Every structure is written in C-alpha cells, then in structure tokens.
Amino acid sequence: MTGQSHRLPQGGLIDRAQTLSFTFDGRALSAHPGDTLASALLANGVHLTGRSFKYHRPRGLYSSGPEEPNALVTLGTSGRTEPNIPATMVEVYDGLVARSQNRWPSLKFDALAVNSLLKPFFPAGFYYKTFMWPRSFWCRLYEPMIRRAAGLGALANEPDPDRYKHAHAHCDILVVGAGPAGLMAAREAALAGARVLLADERPAPGGHLSGETIGIDGKPGAAWAGAVADELAAMENVRLLSRTTVYGRYDGMTFGAVERVGDHRAPDSSSPRQRSWTIHSDQLICAAGAIERPLVFAGNDRPGVMLAAAARSYVNRYGVLPGRNVVVFTNNDDAYRTANDLAGAGARVTLVDSRAEGEVAARALLPAGVEAHYGEYVAGTKGRAHLRGVTLASSGRGIACDLLCVSGGWNPTIHLLSHTGRKPVWDEATASFAMTDPGDGAFAAGGAAATFDLGLTLREGATAGRAAARACGCRLSGKADIPKAGQLPAYGVEALWRVPDAMSKAQGSFVDLQNDVTVADLELAEREGFGHAEHAKRYTTLGMATDQGKLGNVNALGILSELRDMPVAQAGTTTFRPLATPVALGAIAGQARGRDLRPVRHTAMYRWHESHDAVFTQAGLWLRPYYYPREGEDFAAAAAREVHAVRSSVGMVDISTLGKIELKGPDAGAFLDRLYINSISKMKLGRTRYGVMLREDGMVFDDGVVARLGEDHFFITVTTAHAAQVMQHMEFCHQVHWPELDVQFCSVSEAWAAIAVAGPNTRDALARCVTGLDLSNEAFPFLAAGEGRIDGAPVRIFRVSFSGELGYEIFAPAGSGAGVWRAIMEAGEPYGITSFGTEAMTVLRVEKGHVAGPELDGRTTAADLGLGRMMARKKDYIGRAMAEREGLVGAGRQQLIGLKPVGKDGALRMGAHLVNELGAVGPDVSQGRVTSAAYSPTCGHFIALGVLRDGRSRIGERLYAVSPLHEEQVEVTVTQGVFVDAQGERMRV
Amino acid sequence: MRYSLSSILRNAATGHKHWPKQWRQPEPKKAYDIVIVGGGGHGLATAYYLARNHGLTNIAVLEKGYLGNGNIGRNTTIVRSNYLCPENGQFYEHSLKLWEGLSQDLNYNVMLSQRGVLNTFHTPAQRDAAIRRGNAMRLHGVDAVLLNREEVKKLAPAIDCSPGARFPVRGGLLQPRGGSVRHDAVAWGFARGADARGVDIIQNCEVTGIRIESGRVRGVETTRGSIAAKKIAIVVAGRSTLVGNMAGLRLPIESHVLQCFVTEPVKPILDTVVSFGADHFAVVQSDKGGLVFNGSLDGYNSYAQRGNMETLESVAACASSFMPCMSRLRLLRHWGGINDMTMDGSPIITRTPVKGLYFNGGWCYGGFKATPASGWTYAHLIANDEPHEFASGFTLSRFETGLVINENGAGPQPGLH
C-alpha cells in the first residue's frame, strides 16, 4: 500500500483514527472514513483518473461534486459492475473496487489517444460530411469502427444482485439542499408547523460549508450545520433524507428522488441498495447551491487543472493538498478564498486575475507571499499526464505549477425550477442564468438564487422557509432568527467566456471537457449555421455528456453569443430536462424488476393445477393451464387426449380468468340493451344469452354470456383479454352518455372462480355433486341459469357450451373455488373426468366454429364473423351507426370461413395467409388469413378458422395457406366454419 | 459546397475555416408558389422532394422555432417497415428504400444503421400474431425472419431469455433491414438539400393565421408579416389540431405525450433494435453508446413536451427486467414529444375541403421512420393535386367510409394505438 503523499498532517472532516483500503485499477490504496474516492485518489497522489470521450485525452479530477466530467470510474465487479460513476460522489469503504474506463490497454498508455492526432479531420459534425464513399463501406467498416469506440465504461452482462425499493412521501414543503439556505428554510418552515422534507445528496449536512473555513455564529460551518440538522431531526414534522438526490420535478409538484441507502458500505443484500422516492409536496424550496464555471483557454483540460472551490474543499474538508505549486486563475473574488486556503495549507500560490487591479476589492485579502497578476490570463498549459506549468498571455511568462485552480464564476443550480418548462433569465449582476421568478409554489434561496454572500444566503433561506410555510397555511410567529455569518469578499464577477488568446488555439480550448467540444467546434458550428444553442448542442454534442452541460454550457452560450454578435441574454439556454443527476434504472424500477416486473395472477385453483403437472401459459398477467401432460405425452398428445375426453365423456377447464361484471338496478336491462347488439332486456329470468358488444366504430369489441338472475339483476362474463377495457367502457357509457340510467355495476372478476364442464356425461357427473338445482334437461334446459350448491358453497350454474357438447359453466365464490373444483373432479371420477387446458379449449371451439381472440382482433364486424343476424334492428346500441358505413358492409370484407387441407395430412398454422397463387408479392396478394388452426382429433385432420375476402361466397374454393416465414404452403378448401355437430344437437340433449 | 474527400482534406488543412453555412437565413419574400408550414423533418423533406422530383423551388418553409426542433429531434431514431396493413406496408417500405439511399442522395451522412429491428413475443397468441405480421410483410415484399428463443438470445445476449423471467421470451420477429438513423442529421440534410435548390427556409417565423378567400387559400399571417401563397401545405405533427383550426379543419387527431429516454454512454451491449413484446419498451443503442428507449404514451392529451413519473417508472421496470444489465446503467435524461394520434393509428396525407390547402399529419408512432416517404408522397400530392399511389389510402374520408387502416386493431381511441 502506497503512502498518502498529498494528505495534510491535520484538518478535514475525516476520521484519521481509521484507515480503509481500496483499489484503483488494481492498485491497493488507503483512505480514511469521510473520504470520497476523489479525495482518496488525490491524497494518494493519483492525478490521472480518466480519458476523454472522443480524443482519449488524459484527464484528472476537475471538481468535487456531481458535475465531475473527467474522473468517471467503474465500480464493483460482475453483476455489481457500475460504470460512469463520478469519483467525487463515491464514499470510500473498506474493499471498494474502482477502475478507470474508456482506455486500452491502460490509463497511462491509451491506444485511442491517436484520435487526438487526427483532430484536424474530426471536427464537430465530421460524420455528416464523410464516411459516404464507397457506399457499402459505411455499414461494413466505418460504422462498426465508430460503434466500437463508443461509450465510456462497460456494463457486465449479468443480472444485478441488489435490491431496490420504492417509497412515497408527502410533505408541505420539500427543501432541496441542506446547505446554509436549505437548513435555514427547513428550520423556519418547521418552526411554523409545516411538514418539511429536507433532502441532500451528501452524507452530512452543510453543503459547501463543509469545504470552507468561514464560520457561522462563531462555529465552523459544518458544526453549525450539524447542530441545525440535529435540531431538525428532533422535530416530528421534519424528515431528513441524506444521500438523497432529487433528480426531477414533474407536473403537480411531484418529485423523483433517489436515496443511496447502501452505496457507502460493502455490498450487502439484506437492505436495499437504493430507494426511489416519489415525493408529493405543496411547495418547493430549491436550495441546491451553485456550480462553479470553468475558464476556457488552450490546454485547459490537463490533469492538474481543477475548479477553484473544489481545490479548497479538498484542503478544508478532506485534509488533502491537491498541489504544492498552485496557480489560481479567476474572473471573480470567490477564488481568492482558494488562494488563501491553499497558501494556508503550505502551497506556493500565484494568482492570475482577468480583471483590472483597480476593480478588485479582494486583493487586500491575499496573504503575504501570493504573487498576483491583474488584467492577465492563462494562455496555455504544459505537461502530459500531469500539469507542469502555465503560460501567461500578456507577459508570455511561464510559471511552473502542479495545480491550476480556475474559477469563471458560478451557475445557480436551477434544474428543479426549470423541469416543468420555466425558462431562466440572464442576470447581468452575477453573469449567470438565474430563475428570477420560480413560479407558484416554488422558491429559490442561496446559490440557487444566484446569491453568493453567506449572510444573505442565511436570510434568504429563512425568508423562503417562512413564505413557503405561509403559502401552505401555517401561521408565522415572531421574527426569523438569523445567525451571524463570517464575512466574504464581494463576488465581483466579470464574465470571461474564453480568454482572448483562445481564438488562435481554439482546437485545444475545451468547453465541454467530457465530450471534447472545443472553441473551434463552436466556431465551426456557428460558421455552418448551427449557432442557435439547440443546434450547436446537437451539432457538436455540447452538453450531452454525463454532466449534461452543468460545467460547460454557460461558457458555450457566452462564446456562441459572441460569435453571433448578440447579447448572451438573447441566446438563451437549452432546455433543462430531468434527470438533474443520472440515476440507475434499477432504482427507478424499484421492486418491479425481473420476476416482480408485474404481479402474477393466479386463479383459486392454481395449486391444484400445479400439483397436477399443468404446463402454464401467460394470458395477460394470468397464468393458465396450457395442457396437463401425462407420462410420456407431448403437447399434441396431451391436447388430443383432453379433447377426446370432452367429446367422449366429460372434461373440465378453469375459466376463472374471464372478466365478470354484476349489474343491478331498474335500468340494468336497458343499459345492457345499449351495449350489446342483441336484445337483453327481454330475456327471461333464469336464462342466459350469448352477447356481442361493438366499439363505437362498429367493430366487434367483445363477446360473452349474459345471465339474468333477477328482474333488475344481471351477471355478465367478458373475455379475459378485455376484462378491464369492457369495465372502463361501461363506466364511460354510464357516466358520460347515460347518467340518467338507474343502474349500478361492479367488476366481480376476482370474486368468482369459474369452471366450464363439458361432455356427454357432464350432467350425470354434476348430478353427483350439485345440490339445490334440478339439472334435468326439462328443468334446466340449454341456456338456463340457476343457483345451487357444490361442496357446501353457493354456486351459479349456466348451461352454455363453447365446445358444442352438453356443457355448464359454474361460478363459485373465489374462496370456495378450489373446493368446488375438487368436488366436481371427484364426482366425475367414474366417468374419467379430465382437466383440460387452453390448447384443448382452442381445439374444441375451433371444431365448433366459435370465434375468440384471434377472430375478434379489432378489425372484424359482427357480419364478418357471421353474427350479423344478431344485430337488432329495432333498438339503438353502441356502434350501430358506424357499423352501417359503406366500408363495413360493402363487398370485399374478409369474412369468417372454415378451412381444411386438401390432402389429409396438410398442417395448418395460425398466421398463415390465404393466397390465390403462389409466389406473388404485393399489397393485394393476401386474400385473408388463418386465424385459428388446430389438429382436430375428432376429424382426424387439421382444421382452421380463417377470414377471407368475400369468404362466404367462396365455400368450396381451393386456395393456398402460405407462411413464407416457414417456407410453407398448404392447399386448402374453404368450408363452412363448423366441423363438429353442425346441427347443434349435442349441447341441447 | 459538395462534401467529398477533397473538400474535407482541403478544409482539414486550413482549419475548417471555409465551410459555408449549410443553409441560408433568408428574409421571407412577399409571396411564394408554395408555403410549407412546419420546418421539421417532414416539412423539409417535402420541400426537398418538391424541388428534386418536381422542379418546384419558389417555396418557403416556415418554422416557428429553429429548424428540426419538433419530433424529428426528439424521437428514438428507429426506422423499419414491419407493418401489417398493406397500405402501411407499401408506404413504409418505400420509406425504408429511400432511407437506404438517402446519405448519397443528400450528400449528407444520416448514418443509417441497419442492424435489425426485433420484436419479442412471449405467449402462443403473440407468436401467432407475429407470424401473421411477418407473413404479411413477406407478402408485401418486405424482409422478415422468425426467430426462436435461442436465436433471440444469440442476436441480443443482453435480453433475459431465461425461463424464469416474468414473461419468458418465446421468440421474436426480426426485420433485418430495420435499424436507426442519426435523427438530427435528417432534418439538416433535407434542409441543406432544399436550400441548395432554392427553397427559402425561414426560422423563427410562426404562422398565426391562414388566409382563405372563397374556399381557396391566399396566404398565411406570420409573426414576420403576411406571406401570399398559391398553395399551403400544413405539416406540423404534434400541433396539427392547432394549425388545422386556423383553416377551420376539425381533425380526427388527439395530441399525446410520448416520452423518450437516454442513458449514459456505455460500450456496445446491444447491436439490434429490440422491443419487448410483453409490455411497452423499445430500445436502441446509439453510435455514441447511450441506450435510447421509449415506452407507451403518458395517457392524456397534452401539448407540453414533457412527461411524468408513472411512465418513467414503468419504462425503467421494463428496461431492467427485459435487459437485466440495464439495472445499474444510469438514466441521463428524458423528454417528451407530442404525437398526433389518429383514430386508426395510421397517418393522413390529403387534400382538404379548402382549395390549395394540403394536410400531412397524424403520424402516431410512425413519424420519424416515415420522413422520406412522407416528403416524397406529400410533394407529389402538392405538385399534382393528386395523391401518390403509396399514400392514397391516407385520406380523411376513410373515417367517414369506415375504410380505416387499423394497424393494431385498437379502434377509435387514439391513445390506445
């Protein structure tokens, strides 16, 4: 383990009593609790931390926050591999594994750094002008090359073993940022009685105070912050979320946030890694601080160039000296604190200020021994893997240094104020885009409000807290208690978008560090007509890196406005979009990952099916038995056996997944009359009827059974697929079209288990278990509905059949479903009762010519399906008017027909199309298609239902059923669509 | 300036100081033969093909913001022609063929990447629907291949093909010629091509009214003054209903938000465009390395180009389940575009009851991939006052006659398509 060469002997908010070990690119290094990966790397003298995206230039730590563009690392191994994580946001724990990325073979010697030499050929937008010759080279050579070079880190193609959780929080006031403004806001709002949620992305409160020497109320800033946070934590109406990033604001004051629950310690599956919060608030106080701007000059990207405030935070917060010979280059007073703090920590400091000396009040603050240059710029840098020196613009003098601190001013962090569409405006005084009017329910305070004085920040936070509390109905008492802050120099920023010299060295002057966008790129973009901020972004990839332009965008806007000769205020910004900071998709998914993506719906009889070796199939969210293979049976053999059982004796199938809706009220019949194409209100009590509904556009929507259980009482079944949609449709019709109808209805799909029993022995089998209902043909004829008991449970029994056999549908309260199923099984045992799955069900209904999902595909009319005679003429119903349009009734409609292969052994396949001749291609070639196909054990050959252009007039015609996907063609004969018991006698016995 | 090896070498040697503007920034003239309302992909393509195919150049394209700021710049960049309905099949296949030659035609590399578009299926019923669609494609003359689970796994190893998945993959329908295109480049390439042929592209010029006298168009009112026109072509998908209102058109269109998402860039993990058949999720990895994806509509009518968290959460759930390695991939950004959703899920390219006024819109999810064919056929309609054969079904009257082009069978609820 190497020593911590850059660790200061004292200072910082780290625990020096404990030492942690971690690795970077396999090298073992040490750190202390309180370190970030960034501070630990610096402490160990690691300055080269990454490679840039396009030119693979060596890069070092640039910041100390989430805006870090350079020091992106890959954490973890195998399924826990996580690319592109800013080292500045990683808390070191014992055993942490980090790797640099986007380099090969190593960080020091990266082969693709050759791209840098090809820079003259690769300016912004070069792709659009080139790689076109010869044409075939694009997909064979150029694009594969570009794709291989893409990306920063790499994912491991393994499942993520960690857990994530979703949580919801409700509050009156969401305060984002626990720095001085946020703490004051939260405190004042909480004292007024508001329910406050205070979120901060760091492990400890204090914001930038933790990296400063300035105190509050005579205490160090971090200590003051800790005390306020303790006070807040003790209040019942306050919730503090640390390590929590609020990443997005959505309509209706809804916010997304992610809490990093376990990322700061060794992986551990016992608690979630991250928790995703949906926060519903009444008011927002954005106290997210500000982000320092870089300065743009030649060679401004070398390892060793760092934001000024970041440099002093490494000293003050982490006890690390990032450089011993330091140049501070600034256009504002704030960086004087950096000069001060670094000099205090023992560095030799030279200050370069772009402003004229007379304008700088802060010069009095510089400690003795700091050499200062005014009206001067850094024009260039030296060094490769690490900075060795800088050159000044006007004097041409070189200064040897190992750290160059830059400050181009500050940008307020206003993402959460902008996500819902509000645009920031240019503030001349602070040379920044600020949200001067955050809109209803939103406040900004401190750095986020472009306030860079600590005393004002504390006051502004308190004021925002009180105003937000008042806005949500709290009563305020007394005056805000504003603590006394230490004095800061005036800010005094003078915008400097690029040093004048950057013009001649535009190719080496970086505006967007990660994406390697240079001043030359912006110039080219403007030259070619892409000067608009949005065009420049898209043309150069400016601001599209993982920091989303937090660092470089305002400089770029300034440069573009200079190039276009317009005020920066007029140039405007690009659109702020969520996420304010990137978040792992797994965290946003929460629990809904993998097997828990969506709930699984089981019927009441699921356990029985499982214990009887059912093979299940998905039907929406349901799992349904597909078939029940017995020893040695394959899919086809099992289905054939199950079909045979129904045709020859008795079988039963779980149909609990059907949608079920119960209706009551004097107008229930009239209501259903308007929904179904056939008449319902004239049905007799204790009867059922097959019903068909249309959509508004006249196409068939759904079909099912309607049972009249009382004068004002109906029970209907709808298809599994449309259960929810039919319910919605009915709600819509009742609430919007006919609110005057006195009818109540409710989905009871989950309340009833349902079983269809069918086959010639069904009555005899059921008679052994049904009580309280006479099942004889006389007492309970075809289409009758009645109530009885099975296994002690009350059941509803409808005599209906989709198989064409004597059949009953039995509905039992879901809690009794399994018992009723077993009771019927037992009663049917002497008849060899057989459970069957959805495949046999399909075969049975195709044999009988019944339509189902594949025929009701939303494009067929009732007439197409041969159900035209059901359409009542004397009443109006949904879809009737539209069903009469010429396109729905004219010639050329595809109509339901049956199909059988010309040769007995031809196999038919669903999804095959019907064509007159083989080999033709074109829009009119397909005459129709096979909708449902099955091998019919009853017929001894394949049968199918299909739709065919003018099909009903083409019975007997020969066609081909083709499946080019399978290179199959089968000659077929068009038939009537019923293959078994065409007279319909068997179900009436 | 034509882009060629020699112009590139020349510019590389001189610091790229001599590249001209890719299009002019002209002041609007008082009158044009044709005014195209909307400087998005379709409007610019229409202008380009009017000039290229029909020799018409006295044309202005009016754009209220910067060119290409609508759906052309905010989609998932996917192109394909895997449609079921024959009208859509022939139209989108024409479009794909135009895509295949577009970089050369425009002398602008739009970076067409034909790495295939795969739709997975998860149930027997979905398999049958995929076979139906794949066969329809083959009979339309479009490429389609049916894959089993092992083949899906081989093509896209990042997909969870295990039997333990919540919705186990059974197979997929692949269109090998499908893929993606660098979307912004399409707008720029068409703009540059149209401009070079003399079309005026006028940005920051919002149309505020359409002048109609005795049933015929006379011109438009704009934020930059009145402009007379013999023919006016509306092509503003996302705001169709608003601009249609200016001419008294009541359109069978609802405006819905569709969100798009992009992750941080990572090394190549997904070569093909894939969509998850068990839910709403389609994803492509860009040449820059980001995974770009979308889900379903947010579910309410809106003109705001932003969406909400329910869709974000649902899409994240699908992403990290369908491609488990995405769980630790960080989402960078998401945004919304406004889809013109029609009553049958298919577009409208048509004359209107007003003489000289044409309408193009209602693109639902298909707008980006339609761009070249939309421009091609719309230009034909405007130039000849007769529909192009490949777009002759995209009428307004189909909603009256019932001869709708119901691509997924969802019926007259635009939000369900």
Structure explained in plain terms:
The complex is a heterodimer of chains A (989) and B (417). Chain A is an alpha+beta fold. Chain A folds into 6 domains: 1-161, 2Fe-2S iron-sulphur cluster binding domain, sarcosine oxidase, alpha subunit, N-terminal domain (Ubiquitin-like (UB roll), Roll); 164-290 and 412-471, FAD/NAD(P)-binding domain, CATH 3.50.50.60; 496-566, Arc Repressor Mutant, subunit A; 598-657 and 752-850, Gyrase A, domain 2 (2-Layer Sandwich); 659-748, 2-Layer Sandwich (Alpha-Beta Plaits); 891-988, Aminomethyltransferase beta-barrel domains (Elongation Factor Tu (Ef-tu), domain 3). Chain A is built from 23 helices and 53 strands. In chain A, the strands form 14 sheets. Chain A has a 7-stranded mixed sheet. In chain A, strands 48-51-50-49-52-53 form a 6-stranded antiparallel barrel. In chain A, strands 2-1-7-5-6 form a 5-stranded mixed sheet, covered by helices on one side. In chain A, strand 52 and strand 53 form a beta hairpin. In chain A, 58% of the residues are buried. Chain B has 2 domains: 26-77 and 184-253 and 344-410, FAD/NAD(P)-binding domain, CATH 3.50.50; 114-180 and 255-341, D-Amino Acid Oxidase, Chain A, domain 2. In chain B, 30% of the residues lie in helices and 26% in strands. In chain B, a hairpin with a 6-residue loop joins strand 13 (273-275) and strand 14. At the A-B interface, strand 6, helix 2, helix 3, helix 10 and helix 11 of A face helix 1, helix 3, helix 4, helix 6 and helix 8 of B.
